[in-house]
Amino acid sequence: MSDIISTRSELLFLYDIENANPNGDPLNENRPRFDTESSTILVSDVRLKRTIRDYWFEYKGYNGEGDNPDIFVR
Fold first, then answer.
1. Model-level pTM greater than 0.85?
2. Which GO terms describe its biological process (predicted)?
3. Helices (H), the chain
4. Angle at 61 between CA 23 and CA 46, to 5 degrees
5. Rounded to whole angstroms, how far apart are CA atoms 74 and 45?
């Protein structure tokens, strides 16, 4: 059990979009996911995780190869 994670980081991810569909619902003709009670657009956790992985891959080069570690998003 010597491979326990010794450092931990947390990330606050703010998502702002205007005049676009941030996360379409494939079961509803790809319309935006919408909460009728609060009148807000919803973005699934899967979409947020994909966006974070894409950012780290594109801008930081974390692709799991060479000296760069793999990306783990939970």
1. no
2. maintenance of CRISPR repeat elements
3. 45-55
4. 20
5. 9
Around Cβ 50, how many Cβ atoms within 10 Å? 13
Domain ranges within the chain, ordered by starting residue: 25-60
Query: What is the rounded CA–CA span in Å between residue 22 and residue 48?
Result: 10
Structure-token match 């973005």, residue found: 43
d(CA 15, CA 67): 30
Residue 67 has which token pair?
């000296």
21-47: string of b/e by CB count within 10 Å (b at 16+)? ebbeeeeeeeeebeeeeeeeeeeeeee
DSSP 28: G
